[in-house]
Amino acid sequence: MDISTTLNPTPVDDSTLAEILADPGFGDHFTDHMFTVEWTPEKGWHDARITPYGPLTLDPATSVLHYGQEIFEGMKAYRHDDGSVHLFRPEKNAQRMNSSARRLALPEIPEADFIAACEEIVKVDERWVPGSEGEKSLYLRPFMMATEKFLGVRPSRHVTFMVIASPAGAYFKEGLKPVDLWLTEEYSRAGRGGTGAAKTGGNYAASLLAQQEAYDNGCAQVVFLDSVEGRYVEELGGMNLYFVYADGSIVTPATGTILEGITRDSIITIARGLGHEVTERRFEIDEWRKGIESGDIVEIFACGTAAVVSPVGSMKSAQGVTPAPASTELTMKIRSALVDVQFGRAEDTQGWLTKVL
Ligand code: PLP
Ligand code: COI
Fold first, then answer.
1. Which of 136, 168, 200 is the C-terminal boundary of a domain?
2. Tell me, what CATH number does 195's domain have?
3. Residue that is last in its domain, among 135, 168, 201
4. Ligand 2 atom closest to 72 (CA)
């Protein structure tokens, strides 16, 4: 893929950038450039370019605006203490983007081109990659959308893939305090044969009312159950879940209708490496309530790229409150093991890092 580059003539000035990087928040600030490549059935992927970051001009009939044919990814670039910059398992994001693409009837993008686009944005906007202090990073948001001007309902014949980037600090403003969760028993995120395993905007749109209910009940995230029986725990609005038992064994809900997280997958490897038995299986909401009551469940944590690893506190629902688990010890140990690899403080024994700079 040949990428043309047009540099931004008015990049953010150094002192404003320093202010932003001192406290980036999440998803509030965007770098000086963006990557774009387009697809048509006749030409395939073409016209790859880096241009100054800025608004898009879309015809009001552009199909993504009407039918939501869109997918996205989330990954981070980490700066190590020696100044080098690394992506964490970008090939996994590329593979998941393509599995989402297949489900949403969008064209696949070659894995190498996906990674090259992410690397190019990191290179051109290197000054936006924060230092490693405070575990800050540059969040990359690759996304693909239907950009044909057409109101019929069929897969789009014009598709646009872009990468934008945003410096990131903590996702939850409370920091590492356990997050309280709201269990929705009314709304589902995914159904059998649906798009739950794909990273597509519609899943997040479907989660927002329940997410608002979570906020209204003083909770930071919402827990979704399976849509058939309302009995099995699936995941949070934007994170996967883990349950730790007193005997050291660990359970995470099985896949199928959940988004298979790359953090989730990495933690299976890390926890097994620490000698823990990890099982992927269906997990009943009653096991959660009873496990806390009996003391068999000693820790619960949630994980994802944006929020890393976060201890879970209490779980609230219309039926009442299930108190927080007793401990966060293993959660913090697993969290450290993961971020130490990401920030180059521990050996990368699994070959998870791709050096960009
Ligand atoms: N589940 C959902 C619904 C998500 O949005 C995310 C975030 O990407 C995850 C799980 C965790 O996935 P990953 O670890 O790949 O970021
Ligand atoms: C991520 O962790 O990358 C996510 O996509 C979660 C949320 C910001 C949508």
1. 168
2. 3.20.10.10
3. 168
4. 5
The beta strand positions in the chain, using DSSP E, are: 4-5, 33-40, 44-52, 70-72, 75-79, 85-88, 137-146, 159-168, 179-183, 221-225, 233-236, 240-245, 250-253, 278-281, 297-304, 308-317, 320-322, 353-355
**Using CA positions, which residue lies closest to atom 10 of ligand 1?**
239
pLDDT (tens digit per residue) in 125-171: 999 999 988 899 999 999 999 999 999 999 999 999 999 999 999 88
Name the residue of 26, 137, 222, 239 whose CB sits within 8 Å of the most ligand 2 atoms, as the mutation to test its pocket: 239
Our count of domains for the chain comes to 2
Stated pTM of the model:
0.97
The domain of 78 spans 4-168
Q: Is the domain of 154 the same as that of 249? A: no
